[in-house]
């Protein structure tokens, strides 16, 4: 196997009280791990635990086959977006790797890193994308972008047909698969 070389790029994060964060993180090697309902359910559970632990509002989300978009706002004055992301991402990765080890070890090849210190990865290495948002128009544009991602990628012809999205929470009052925090949304 050809050795991979990566440029280590540090993602600069700004933990500014009152700011919303548009977050994006991807599956390892752009693989489509989130086609698994089991993995999506573990991600939902992890998001709920992280929301409770870190006190943030979840305003929009979409789980794509190979990446995730979130729009959140930490509610505490002091928070660390890196810790929030860590707590969202760790549990589904750990559970998926353990599940595959016990039930489908032949599929672990898709998560193999060829490294000694970390043999398997579920998420792509690095900080992902984090944009602080303070303007209402930017919040609206971010939500539209998130909800329309499955349409842009040709997975569905309208956003309400993609199950792992907050679109139906907002526009059809369906609080599944994951509850959003409409009551803290700053725009009427």
CATH architecture: 2-Layer Sandwich
Please tell me what the overall shape is: globular
Question: What strand line-up does the widest sheet have?
Answer: 2-3-1-4
- As for the CATH topology, it is Alpha-Beta Plaits
**CATH homology superfamily:** Transposase IS200-like
Task: Return the average pLDDT rounded to an integer.
Answer: 93
Give the % helix.
25-40%
Topology, number of strands:
4
Indicate the multimeric state.
single chain
Total number of helices: 4
Briefly characterize the structure.
With 188 residues, the chain is of the alpha+beta class.
SSE inventory with pairings:
Elements (H helix, E strand, L loop, with lengths): L19 E7 L10 H18 L1 E8 L3 E8 L6 H23 L25 E5 L2 H17 L14 H5 L17
Antiparallel strand pairs: 1-3, 1-4, 2-3
How would you describe the overall organization of this protein?
- By secondary structure, the chain is an alpha+beta fold.
- It has a single domain (20-184), classed as Transposase IS200-like (Alpha-Beta Plaits), CATH 3.30.70.1290.
- The protein is 34% helix and 15% strand.
- The protein contains 4 helices and 4 strands.
- The chain has helices spanning 37-54, 81-103, 136-152, 167-171, and strands spanning 20-26, 56-63, 67-74, 129-133.
- A 4-stranded antiparallel beta sheet has the order 2-3-1-4, with helices on both faces.
- Strand 2 (56-63) and strand 3 form a beta hairpin.
Based on the model shown, name its key terms.
four-stranded antiparallel beta sheet, 188 residues, globular, Alpha-Beta Plaits, alpha+beta, 4 strands
